[in-house]
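Quick question: what would this complex look like in 3D?
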Amino acid sequence: MASVSGIGRRSKAPPFWLVMAALVPTMLIGLPIFYVIARAVEAGPQAVIDELFRAYTFDLLVNTLILSVSVTTLSCVIGVGIAWLVERCDLPGRRFWSVLASLPLAIPAFVASYAWSSLDGAFESMGGAILILTLSQYPLVFLPVAAAFRSMDPSLEHVSRSLGYGPWGSFWRAALPQAKAAIGGGALLVLSHMFAEFGALALLRVQTFTTAIYQSYQLQFDNTSAAMQSAVLMALCLPAAFGEMRLRGGVRTARTGQGAARRSGLLRLGRWKYLALGLLALLALAALAVPLVTILYWLTVGRSIGAGLEDMAGALQGSLMLSVPGAVLTTLLALPLVMLAVRYRGPFGLVADRLPYVVHGLPGLVVALALVFTSIRYVPAVYQSTLVLLIAYAMLFLPLAQSSLRASLELVPPELENVARSLGRKNYEAFLSVTLPNIAPGVGAALALMVLELMRELTATLMLVPTGVLTLATEVWSYTNDAQYAAAAPFAVMLVLASVVPVYVFTQRSLKIYDL
Amino acid sequence: MYYVDRRGLLKAGAALVGTAALGRAGAAIAAEGTTLTVYNGQHAQLTDPLFAAFTDATGIKLNVRRGSSTQLANQIMEEGDNSPADIFYAEESAPIIALAEKDFLAPIEAASVEMIDPRWIGKKRDWTGITARCRVVTFNPDMIAEKDLPPSVMDFATEAWKDKVAYVPTSGAFQEQIVVIMKMKGREAALNWLKGLKEFGRPYNGNMAVARAVEKGEIATGLINNYYWYAVAHEVGAENMKSKLHYMRHKDPGAMVSVSAAGIIATTRRAEAAQKLIAYMVSEAGQSVIAKAVAEYPLNPKVKSTFALEPFDELDPPDVPPAEVGDALEAIKLRKEAGLG
């Protein structure tokens, strides 16, 4: 039986090795923050005031907020809705729909945006951007919530039913509160993705802080206004990063007893079934069919078809060579942060755990410039080496790994580690022999999600990649830049195909983290 | 470790011997020579064949780093004395002029400079134009007749053109155009032009997007560089193109000619090879490769484009050469004042 109480809280001091391990990612995360602040200070207070208090900045603020709040809210509605349908209702083909609903993750947002904007110019607008980005982002809410619904202790819902609430009342009072942490985690990822989104918005002609930052770097040889826009963006991320933590509150989801893992009965949909199926089919059409058909269409109409195909193997190799080690490094750096935050809730752990979310909302460009600045001045030997790019990846995507790992770690009862320690194991031995094996599904999910995101990262890659190394994403960019859409298509197809494997792993692992 | 441009290597190898197996041996011989690092902001369609031909001719290999021209210029400034770059090739002149003004560039050999008209050369002879293109109006004849287009680009910023003109406030050539208007007609005129465009025009995020939007009939006209139209035509076939190009001429700011430009980074340790690359880029041989690859005007007067371009002498551009336009930073201030970003 799950105990909904606050006994997961601990306040004892974390071990030294863990603090040291958490310092590494924290210092890295500090780099872009210091870079942005230093550049803004260089400009002087008058420049800061002039830049921040002009109509243009206000327009950007409004656009950024409308876009990110709308996409996040809609992603939550769609994500929770589908999760509830496929996990808690007697929908026909529930497994099939569950897989289909997570597949949009395999399609990069800029590919989807290109597809929609080539259908009709009307999608190049705020409304279009909200629609298209919601369709590409909702799986980030759907997956953790589906996993939470699947594993939910049915007894709570039964209690609620026995108290006279109907199925709807039980959904609101028992099911939804239990999925609160999963919803909050997913929503935060979507929100910070929206703060940092560039490729899709450039195509859809929507101006946000991030597109403005790119423009500044695109046109100017003095980066102060871009630095100030970045500072505003970080300020926007802060409340979101800390707010999400409050949502999670003191709910304890770990179970030590296996007994109650009985599946609860499914809700009968009756005639509503057809409506639900119709909506799911419509969603699959919009989120999957439109972009895929468009890529295939490029293949048939352009004259540049086949150009650069000899680079395919190299680009695929480059993508894997960067994304797989990048994923491993990011996950390794995320582990101590999550351990510290979940097991020892001290102030350092809190800040170290939250800062990466702030940087996650920054455009890749800013992180890349901070690394150019630092590496060429202090460690020129590693400049434009793979190592620096991998570090940039880790700085940009730590929160994705943190979310997956956290969900897993919260399910491992600390009592298990205490037992190991009481049997004479040292702290880190208890971690290696008890904690790590138990969070393996979370690690798998984190790795898969990272590989997926890293394969499509473009801006930091362009700026930091070893000269001459190609990736699938840089090739798609390069050919679409020259209007050679048919030449870009095979690389886009390969990017989607290569994404299917990590999406599958991520989906399976995410849904099964509770099957301890 | 990975410092080999595979594309260049493959092409050089294939051209040398023709078979893949022997191609690798050919490339291995070239690998013993010097390798230059090029920061390239120009379209790959132009540079891929140009650089491959250079490696064929000289045995000097090139590491090509890609990115947008301004970003690469920013990167070179951020790198300072440690920059690995030997050569910078920019899609527009402003980024390279920004480097020139901060003394990041080395002078180019006289023999190379003399191949190109002095109008297209940097004031300190530390950069040279490689290709030229001109500002044009692309229009969709289904939506508007050519005779109804205004005589000057200035007229587009008026209510009569509400929702009928697409422009790209972030493109480099657009900034240069703002500066040209300032130099020709004064600051006030340039500011009003921008305010008019903001109020009545429709901003796009790229020239290619404008070329496509006009082609699809999404909007009647667009302010772009000529070669974007040719790039779309190249992809869908010129005979299938609906949109057409209109040339402003008469020294109108709308007839501005801009150049892509290259220079040598002052900190290079391979100055001799770098001079060879610049020499090749302006030579008849190099310019002929460009003339076949993209619809830009080769700047070496002995070479003519193989595309059906409007003759270069008939463009009648304003008398404000790129070197006078400078790094276009004034344009940014005006844009901010006009509320354009």
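Answer marked as accepted. Confidence is low (pLDDT under 50) at residues 1-32 of chain B.
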